[in-house]
C-alpha cells in the first residue's frame, strides 16, 4: 500500500518516470500525450533543456533566500519581465507558490488597500456562480462552485455570487450577446447596490473560465461593462488568470483580449510551467502606492514567497516562450484544434458545445443535445472519460461543473505550446476513442 495520501484513495495511479516534450511516460513504458498540461500547467512540455539548465544554474548560486532578508536577481528580473508586458497600471508583482496563494494575496491586498485609504467598511466580495479560485479557505469562499464548497461551507466567509457569463446556457432566446453583457453587468451593479457600494471591496472573475466550465470566454463587451461598473462604485477588479493567463489563450494575459486592465491579476500554472511551483499577484500602482505611503508593509507572507529557484525557472519559461515566438503559434494551433474538434464532434449526440481560445479549448458533455440536459451525476461521466482517455494514452481534464445545482460535465484541453500539427490529430483521435468507450 502506498503511504502517500493521494487525491483519490480508491484509485491506483501509474508512476510517471519521464517526460518527453508533450508526452509523459510511465514505469511500464506507456506514453501519454499531455493534452491538458496536467491542469493547464505544462505549457512548454516536460523536458525543456533551457529551463532545466536555468534551474540547475540558480540552485548552484543561491537556491533560496528568505524575502525578509534579501531580494534576488531572478525575482527582480521576473518582476521586470512581467510588468513590462502586463496590462496598464500593473506595476509590481507579489510572488507566491501557486494559484490559491495568489488569490489569497489578492484578497488581502484589496482589503488592506481600503484600510490604508480610510475605507475600512469595504470588506465584501462579489464573484460568480460556478467559479473556482482555489482551495484555500479565502479562495474557496470566493469561488461559487457548490460541489467544491459543500463540505466546507461553515468555514467560509460570506461572498456574493452573481451569474457567470456563459453564453451556451445563459443567453436567452432572441437575446444578442451585447444585450446579455448588459444584463449581466446590470445584475452585478444591482448586487453592489443591494450590499451598499461602500461595503464592497472587489469583484473577482476569470477572463476565460477554466476548471469549472471548460474554457468559456465571455461574450464581447462583458468585461468592459464590468470594469465600468466597478469604477463607478470604487470597487477593485480582480482578474484570476491562474489558468487562462501566461499565453494560454494566445496573449500573455487573457485580459488583453478584453481590452481592459485590472487592479489585481493573479497568475500561476503556466508561469513556471510546472518546472517549479510558482504563482504571483500583479498589483496596480494605486494599491502599491497606498500601502507604501501608509503602513508601508503588506500584512501577509509565506516562507517560500519569491523563491529564487522558482523565479529563475519561471523566467526561463517565459523567455523561452518569447524567444521561440510561441504565442502566435498558440493562436494557430488553437484554431487548428478547434477546427478538428468541430469537424469530429460538431454533430456528436453528447457534445453540446465546443468553445475556447488559443490552446484552451472545452467540450461540454450533455445527455441530450437538444435540451442541453446534463448527464446524471451518478454516471460519473467525467471520471469515466478521464480513465478511458488514460487507457488510450491521452491526458485530458474532464470535470463536473454545477449547472443550476446539478453536476454537468466538460472536458478541458490545454496542451503544451510546443505541439506539432500531428499532435492535434492524435488528441482528437484518442479523445474519440475515449468518448466511444466512456459514453
Ligand atoms: N484559480 C483558478 C482559475 C484555477 O483554475 C486554480 C486551479 O486550478 C486556482 C485558482 C488555484 O490554483 P492552485 O491549484 O495552484 O492553488
TrEMBL record:
GO MF, any single term: transaminase activity
SUPFAM superfamilies: PLP-dependent transferases (SSF53383)
Coiled-coil regions listed: none
Essential cofactor(s): pyridoxal 5'-phosphate
Gene3D superfamilies per record: Aspartate Aminotransferase, domain 1, Type I PLP-dependent aspartate aminotransferase-like (Major domain)
Highest taxon listed in the record's lineage: Bacteria
Alphabetic keyword roster: Aminotransferase, Pyridoxal phosphate, Transferase
Protein family according to the UniProt entry: Belongs to the class-III pyridoxal-phosphate-dependent aminotransferase family.
Name of the featured protein: Aspartate aminotransferase family protein
